[in-house]
Amino acid sequence: RAIDWDAVQRDLAGLNIIDARGQRKQLSRDFYWYSPILSAQLDNCIAELVVKVSTEDDVRQVAATAAKWKLPLTVRGGGTGNYGQCVPLEGGIVMDVTGMSRVLDVADGRIRVQAGARMHDIDLAARETGQALRMWPSTWHVATIGGFVAGGFGGIGSFRHGILRDTGNLLNARVMTVEREPRIIELRGDDIQQVQHAFGTNGVILDVEVALSPAVDWVHCTVLFPKYRQALDFGIDAASPDLDLFLFTTVEARFAPYYTAMGDRFPTDRHAAFAMVAPESMDDFRKAAAGHGGIISVAGTEDQLLALGLPPAYECAFNHTTLQALKLDRSWTYLQISYAQPFDPAVVERHLAIFGDEVLQHQDFARAGGEAGTFGILLVRWKGEAHQYEVIREIESQGGCQVFNPHVFTIEDGGMKTIDDAQIQFKKRSDPLGLMNPGKTRGWTSDMARQV
Ligand code: FAD
């Protein structure tokens, strides 16, 4: 279908339009390159136009123009997603919302912000009132709240507050539809699940209200263990109500060479746990660590660690572990796993035995749905697609492990596994022409598009 791009640009008059190829290419990418499989599939996807919006009226103009010309429209926040979430599979328009970054309101227990606000900036605004965000991804200096809601899962803070989906974390959201005359839909409480982890396929999130908790000046700790099993057992016990933790992550000793800044605070003959601990829990944390054979090699506030050239604990956790390794060795890729509960460390020991040097172990402890949750982000040596799927099959064959495949770009083939009917029903209202981030959900078929 031939598109008159000059006419499209006239409809977008007054907006900040980018049509230089280099910038369009850059703004059509995210962190999918962790996966060689996705790299091969997505490297050539590029938007015809990128529009940088800074007001709701700008969004309205872009949404109306996309609907008028039936153009694919992909919303972009910080572009830190891992599955090509904001890569425009079918070209069209990429709308960068990072210019919509205002804090709209901070009250007791809540903050309302525009969707393009960066997570770290939001936390700074909250801290001015003695409060803090309940959870954020380790990419929080770049990642936006809209991208976290539409693409994320949970992260730093999930040990204490559960995952994004858990009731009480997301409070309100306003979403703009993509139609000739865009409308605004308000979502409250659990209704926000309709757009959570929907990869921006069903409406443009304009602003979000999230819950806050009283601020804590977390102590970032590294604990070293002779055996990996000891670190994992500590992870299970760390959920004790006596300990107030924001983060608890374990990595085995073979990660040490990738944590170059840590030197002998993470030597190659020791396994490590990284934690963020409330100051008043430090005495109990020390005792519990010692009870599991652990020795604390780092304990300090983020500022103290940075002054020593050490990374904060959250940069040693979740998908930052993979990034640390990839910075030095691009022959790794990764897999994400959820373990059956109650978590049995013997499952990890089995994987250590059968995979040898092909797979390195890293586990994140968290809460999900009010229960303990244990997740793994494993480093896997890249030996081709067939080998990657052999590893997946082996992991899923025993012990109740579920792999969230990071080598696919649809919502359903990755973490969600099934089509979320509520999200598809919402898409019928919010994106009746099926223009938003096409190709990312298997739940939407072209015959669903309402002809307007
Ligand atoms: P983007 O990548 O820009 O977008 C993500 C998705 O949201 C896309 O589908 C996009 O179309 C959609 N979207 C963006 N803004 C809007 C909007 N306003 N309206 C509608 N749709 C929108 N994720 C976690 O959940 N937890 C982690 O701990 C974590 N750690 C990470 C560590 C590393 C090193 C890396 C590279 C990634 C990590 N991620 C993690 C993934 C990612 O960083 C986060 O999910 C982040 O919050 C995404 O935000 P973003 O602004 O970069 O989103």
TrEMBL record:
Q: One short Pfam family name for this protein?
A: FAD_binding_4
* Domain (FAD-binding PCMH-type): residue spans on this chain: 42-215
Q: Which UniProt keywords apply?
A: FAD, Flavoprotein
Q: Where is the signal peptide?
A: none
UniProt KW Flavoprotein keyword:
yes
SUPFAM superfamilies cross-referenced by the UniProt entry: FAD-binding/transporter-associated domain-like (SSF56176)
- Taxonomy, superkingdom: Bacteria
Cite the Gene3D superfamilies for this sequence.
Answer: 3.30.465.10
Known InterPro entries for this protein?
FAD-bd_PCMH (IPR016166), FAD-bd_PCMH-like_sf (IPR036318), FAD-bd_PCMH_sub2 (IPR016169), Oxid_FAD_bind_N (IPR006094)
Q: By what name is this protein known?
A: FAD-binding oxidoreductase
The record lists the organism as Variovorax dokdonensis
